[in-house]
From TrEMBL:
Pfam families: Zn_ribbon_3CxxC. The keyword Zinc applies. This is 3CxxC-type domain-containing protein. Its main location: cytoplasm. The keyword Metal-binding applies. Residues 1-86 form the 3CxxC-type domain. It is found in: Cytoplasm. Keywords: Cytoplasm, Developmental protein, Differentiation, Metal-binding, Oogenesis, RNA-binding, Zinc, Zinc-finger. SMART domains: zf-3CxxC.
């Protein structure tokens, strides 16, 4: 899932391709910590990640999954609520 975040304190905005649902209904999501304020933020919008090759939903398409991530932008597990809970994303 792809999420859009905004810090309620400093108003910093960021996006993440590593957003995970806490429940099957996809109404609760793991948050990410703001790098500046160190407070946990929830995504204000979440959408499916689409495959850049075939245009289908990335988690179910048959394309090479390595093309859906940017190797130059590693996952910040220190800021990730899911990773910190012991359920690592990667």
């Amino acid at each position: 899932m792809y999420g859009f975040f905004e810090c309620s304190k400093c108003k910093a905005k960021w996006e993440s391709a590593k957003v995970y649902s806490k429940n099957k209904a996809k109404t609760l999501y793991y948050g990410q910590e703001c790098k500046s304020c160190k407070i946990m933020c929830q995504p204000y919008r979440v959408e499916e990640t689409m495959c850049s090759l075939c245009g289908e939903v990335a988690r179910t398409c048959g394309c090479d999954k390595t093309r859906h991530t940017d190797p130059n932008k590693p996952h910040r597990s220190d800021l990730c609520e899911k990773c910190r809970s012991g359920n690592r994303c990667q």
